[in-house]
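Tutorial handout. Part one gives the primary structure; part two gives the three-dimensional structure as tokens.
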Amino acid sequence: MTCTTIILVKKITCVSRLFFVFLILVACNQQSAKHPVLKYYPSENVFEDGYVSKYYRHYYPKNKDARASTEITYSKFRKEGKRIFIERFNAGFDLVGTTELLVSGSEILVEKLVDIRRTDTIDIEIITPVRSRWDGGTIEPYILRYMFGEKYYRYTEQQLDVYDTLIDGKPGKILLMDAAYTEEDSEEQTNKFTDKSIYLAGLGFYASSSMNENYKLEVELIEQMSVVEFERRADHNKHRIAWIDPDNTLDPSEEFNICGPDQFIADYYNSTPDGRYLHGKRAMLDTVFQNLDESKLLEQNGMLIFRFVVNCEGKAGRFIVDGYDFMYQPIQFEQETIEHLHSILKKLEDWRPVVIDAEPRDAYFYVNFKIENGKITDILP
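Part two.
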């Protein structure tokens, strides 16, 4: 029973009890806000009801001839008492793993870890369960054991440091780790890397960066939603999540043709090199800021994301827009702002299309404007 539920139940008893109930509610909120771990997650009520975070997972190989890639993942979080339950999903909303955590003071212990690979469910043996300690104290290495193919491997992770941070005005915690995979029979390390994970108050797991001698892997939060909204999207039945309805765009009357069927539209990162603005990021930024009228940003705050299609000829169309605040909740930007930035994006006429199997293809693209106090502070990707 959440704190909110307690106060609703007690309100119908008698007036003399209302003050007592208020104390319960305040104590519960203060306890969560002061907890060394839970204060870096969403509020008690949100956490107990459950929420879903959507992430981009960027893979950057250090070999320039190798292929970079980006994928979408989802994680569903829910707390019961001192336990945190996590379900992990791929871009197609298929369940790919589960984790059960125990929060004990300033420590997080892993109680159960399962990977789902196609039709196989793999229970991973937890040798030492304490994965992190948020007060800066020392801990023993966190060790897992699992089978891959016909060989056994160990995953070993050692917390190096933990410290406070502040991002977009929100307090956070950064955890630094050294990690390695070791093949048991030969004791050969197959992958050794460092990892930095960031948690922010009100958001939970926010971002991470892992690096070894061959690649860099970055994870970034791009949206949070209720479990109900996640289940609605997962039950879309008709189109994958990136689909853009050609009859419901910012420019529905525009003549814009794609080269193949809708179901074959790829994503901008599905080729080597990636699809992108032909003249480079610097030229794109120059066009944006040379044509920008900051007065049309109207002192707004948030992330204004334009999604669109670039066809096989490198032409852009089917623009739609989504807005989010810095807590990754949907917001509505002023129409004047949307129309102004849309008109600037339309000036970017030369795009490099995605190429798959030596053939140019239609693909989904996006441009994300981060706006703070009426000024553009970042443009992604």
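Part three, for discussion. Residues 298 and 334 are 8 Å apart (CA to CA). Residues 18-34 form the longest helix (17 residues).
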